[in-house]
Amino acid sequence: MKKSYLLFCCLFGCLPFLVSCDNDEKIIDSTIVGKWQLTKYKEFGVMDGKYITASGTNNTYREYMPNGKVKFYYADGTDGTPLTYTIEGETLRMESTESQLWTEYKFEITGSNLKLTYLKSNMFCVTGELEEGIYKKID
């Protein structure tokens, strides 16, 4: 009887590990979902690390969607490269859907402001790339 009980417990104890379903659906931090407007930023190798106010041609928007995609809108009316994003802890990782390029940022949301700080990337050159950006939620 003891052996049957032990076998019974082992089978039901292992059942959750044996039965699984493939779920490709991404879990997204809902606080980032929405449309964000760049208000100021720092670029690597530009302006000695001082903030630049976003206006005119450098006034961009990014929209994080609940399905794990992010869309960019530029002041000249063009859209950026399609990207996907994932969040793990305080790290936001954006990947190109057209190439193997990716960039990771530390992200912080305070009220209606989003701050992205560059962590790492597999791109070769970072001069002129976003080192830190402050965005305001508009949608």
What is the compact description of this entry?
The chain has 139 residues and is mainly beta. It contains one helix and nine strands. It has one helix at 2-18, and strands at residues 34-43, 52-53, 61-64, 69-73, 83-88, 91-96, 102-110, 113-121, 130-137.
Strand content: 35-45%
Shape: globular
Number of DSSP-assigned strands: 9
Number of helices: 1
**First and last CA, distance:** 63 Å
The biggest beta sheet reads:
8 strands, antiparallel, barrel
For the largest sheet, list the strands in their spatial order.
1-3-4-5-6-7-8-9
Helix content: 10-25%
Report the structural category.
mainly beta
Low-confidence parts? 1-27
What is the averaged pLDDT score?
76
H/E element sequence? HEEEEEEEEE
Gyration radius (Cα, Å) is: 21 Å
Question: How would you portray this structure in words?
Answer:
- It is a single chain.
- The chain is mainly beta and 139 residues long.
- Strand 3 and strand 4 form a beta hairpin.
- Strands 1-3-4-5-6-7-8-9 form an eight-stranded antiparallel β-barrel.
- It has one helix at 2-18; strands at residues 34-43, 52-53, 61-64, 69-73, 83-88, 91-96, 102-110, 113-121, 130-137.
- It contains one helix and nine strands; from the N terminus they run αβββββββββ.
- It is globular.
